Fold:
Amino acid sequence: MFHVILSKRVNTRLFKSITFMDIIVGGATGLVGQEILEVLEEMSPQVTHVIPAASERSVGKHITFRGQSVPVVSFARAADSGAQVAIFSAGSDVSRKWAKEFSKKGITVIDNSSAWRMDPEVPLVVPEVNAHHIQKEHKIIANPNCSTIQMVVALAPLHKDLGIKRVVVSTYQSVSGSGLAGIDQLEAERNGKAVQAPAYPHPIDKNALPHGGNFTDNNYTSEEIKLIDETRKILDEPQMAITSTVVRIPVTGGHSESVNIEFEKPFSQENIKKILSSATNIKIEDDPKNNFYPMPVHIRKSNFTHVGRIRRDFSVDNGINLWIVADNLRKGAATNAVQILNYILDKQA
Ligand SMILES: NC(=O)c1ccc[n+]([C@@H]2O[C@H](COP(=O)([O-])OP(=O)(O)OC[C@H]3O[C@@H](n4cnc5c(N)ncnc54)[C@H](OP(=O)(O)O)[C@@H]3O)[C@@H](O)[C@H]2O)c1
Structure:
């Protein structure tokens, strides 16, 4: 099967004249990897074949892509496949080990891990906001953290028109943000089973953990620092005032965020709605009288960023509160990565 795929491979630069190509999906057996396969089927008709890569544990297993059963290979084998683009979602250690190796072989890597995000040589991209950061010479392109992506999709158009002075964000993140391990822990606890390899230091069911990633020296968690640093990098605002609290809750999919923003300029509430509703890939869901606002249960498989509970913060001059919800496996990971892929394929064509 692998040979069949290779024999059909085409140079992506010829993509305009030849209508099929293959893409390496590193981490294809994981939560994000599975979602990437699905989003490629939906959003990248030109990608007709994939080379799925994962750990040695999965080599020889099969994934399904466009109705075909495809064998999983090692990263080493995928690196020599001759494909020209890879999307990685196999964690930071794997990305640190393999991204440069792949790029030396001429493969452009779109990386979902945090390994390269803050590298000044690597663009950190949310296509609706800063696709222009991608230049021809970039062989590694970083996908931001899931919570960062959904927040900057809403912040960017508001910043452009009103100038952001300060952001205070608190997240309510689902367990799927911690990969299969997070889902396994929640399901084991709900079913009264022993948790084999816990994703969290405490029970997650019926709980709220103010703890995402590892604690740093300043008592923030690594996930909180990512939200701050990545937002500044994407918006080209290295000094932007932002503070964050990351909380994990017993929801299987979909991250929610309470975001308080202070602007330089005055605004009307209608103005905020107008800016957000004309921005790309944002859905306004804001009809509180009819109990209508975004919720994780409603946005699974959505590629949009959903915004509601839009209301003035009366404690400051130019403040607003937003409730922002997105599917962390879609816009927070797979959809954003595939949008980057489509952008670079369009540029190459
Ligand atoms: N979950 C989210 O919402 C989200 C959002 C944005 C970004 N991300 C990032 O995406 C990455 C994957 O997350 P996930 O949630 O999909 O995790 P996951 O469900 O645990 O999947 C991990 C994937 O990585 C592979 N892998 C693990 N160790 C490996 C190794 N040593 N060599 C090769 N492959 C290896 C696994 O293969 P096996 O099946 O063979 O073990 C699996 O395919 C992480 O960097 C994460 O930070 C996740």
Q: What stands out?
A: The radius of gyration is 20 Å. The pocket of NAP is lined by residues 27-33, 54-55, 57-58, 75, 89-92, 94, 112-113, 146, 176-177, 179-180, 328-329, 332-333 (CB under 6 Å). The chain has two domains: 2-115, 147-328. DSSP finds eleven helices and 13 strands in the chain.
